[in-house]
Write a structure and sequence with these properties.
It is a single chain. This protein is α+β, with helices and mostly antiparallel strands. The chain folds into 2 domains: about 5-235, P-loop containing nucleotide triphosphate hydrolases (Rossmann fold), CATH 3.40.50.300; about 240-330, Nucleic acid-binding proteins (OB fold (Dihydrolipoamide Acetyltransferase, E2P), Beta Barrel). About 25% of the residues lie in helices and about 30% in strands. It has 8 helices and 19 strands. The strands form 4 sheets. The chain has a 6-stranded mixed sheet with strand order 6-7-8-3-9-10, sandwiched between helices. α2 (about 95-105) crosses α3, α2 runs parallel beside α4 (about 140-150) and α3 crosses α4. The protein is globular. The two termini are about 40 Å apart. The relative contact order is 0.12. Bound molecules: adenosine-5'-diphosphate and magnesium ion.
Length: about 350
């Protein structure tokens, strides 16, 4: 390992007939790290990944992988593997045939194929399923076949585009852990596209949040959660999102500022003793706690958590309290105001 980043994207731009795909994409990825490209639908995640893969050519910028400028190289020359949302398995081939398909194309000798197949099946917990057809597998198993295929490719860089979005919630959780463990065990570098902030926050070392074709913030999950650069980041990262309060509703802040507040920093105050007087909009029992959504004319996304079952009547008045040290301050443009 050197200090040189394993992957470098430098000022990448891609347009279609003048229409924006992505712009000013600059990113350095360390070898062995797990990077999530996160953002709402249409923000340019897949485009960025496809540019990195060599499935699209950038209009501007440079792409370096493992010290080599691959900006104009074919996908097959970039030494990477890909896993897609649609598993892209051949329905008429067995699990084993699907997994080793690429090796066969590359004329890897049969004994070596067999050895790699066995190892990949073990890692993905698919031993015993080698002769099944994809149609005879669950969604989670099919996704693991796609993973096994990426593993046998033996590349140090693996690109994944929403690989879990076809799975149900329980399966998603399970495969999420599988992928993370695999990445660690194999020491590979993963660039992972998702619109699901929980997925990105739980899996990635670095989360790259995108909006309208640009990167808005890149950093560790804790950084994005605790120090959002903009109100967009504040609302996109975390469940529930950060509440945003117009500074007009609070004492001690400049005009036109927006004040951010996380639910874990909100407490219910005795009547008349709080800092904001709200009413209950909805309450939702989550099991270990109840999330109470609050309404206030100068705020969005206000919630307070109560332990256990604590449903409230809609319209019930609730005063809330919080500490100044827990507040996030944004200017009129929605950019974080740095503490002085
Ligand atoms: P995401 O994966 O974040 O949902 P995409 O990268 O697929 O977003 O798309 C980013 C933008 O580029 C969108 O506005 C999309 O319509 C546009 N786009 C993507 N692929 C093409 C294409 N082949 N031709 C024209 N526009 C495209
Ligand atoms: Mg996409």
């Amino acid at each position: 390992m050197t200090d040189e980043p394993f992957v470098i994207l430098k000022d990448i731009a891609k347009r279609w007939n003048g229409q924006l795909g992505v712009e000013e994409i600059s990113l350095e990825i360390a070898e062995g790290s797990f990077v999530a490209l996160l953002g709402p639908s249409g923000c340019g995640k897949s485009t960025t990944l496809r540019l990195l893969a060599g499935l699209e050519a950038p209009d501007e910028g440079q792409i370096v992988i493992n010290g080599r400028d691959v900006t104009t190289s074919a996908a097959s020359d970039r030494n990477l593997s890909m896993v897609f949302q649609s598993y892209a398995l051949f329905p008429h081939l067995s699990v084993a045939e699907n997994v080793v398909f690429g090796l066969k194309v590359r004329r890897v000798p049969a004994p070596e194929r067999q050895e790699k197949l066995q190892r990949a099946l073990e890692i993905t917990d698919l031993v015993g399923y080698e002769n099944r057809k994809p149609g005879e597998l669950s969604g989670g198993q099919r996704q693991r076949v796609a993973l096994a295929r990426a593993i046998v490719a033996g590349q140090r860089l693996c690109l994944m585009d929403e690989p879990l979005s076809n799975l149900d919630a329980k399966m998603r959780n399970a495969v999420r852990k599988d992928i993370k463990k695999l990445q660690r065990d194999l020491g590979i570098t993963v660039v992972y596209v998702t619109h699901d902030q929980t997925e990105a926050m739980s899996m990635a070392d670095v989360v790259v949040l995108m909006k309208d074709g640009r990167i808005v913030q890149a950093g560790s999950p804790e950084d994005l959660y605790n120090k959002p650069d903009t109100t967009f980041v504040a609302e996109f990262v975390g469940a529930p999102p950060m509440a945003l309060i117009n500074s007009a509703a609070l004492k001690g802040f400049a005009e036109d500022q927006t004040i951010g507040l996380r639910t874990e920093n909100v407490t219910i105050a005795p009547k008349g003793k709080g800092r904001l007087s709200c009413v209950v909009r909805e309450s939702e029992f989550l099991g270990a706690e109840t999330m109470i959504g609050l309404e206030h004319e100068n705020a969005t996304g206000l919630t307070v958590m109560m332990p256990g079952l604590a449903l409230k009547e809609e319209g019930e008045p609730i005063d809330i309290a919080f500490n100044d040290s827990d507040l996030h301050v944004f200017d009129a443009q929605g950019n974080r105001v740095l503490a002085t």
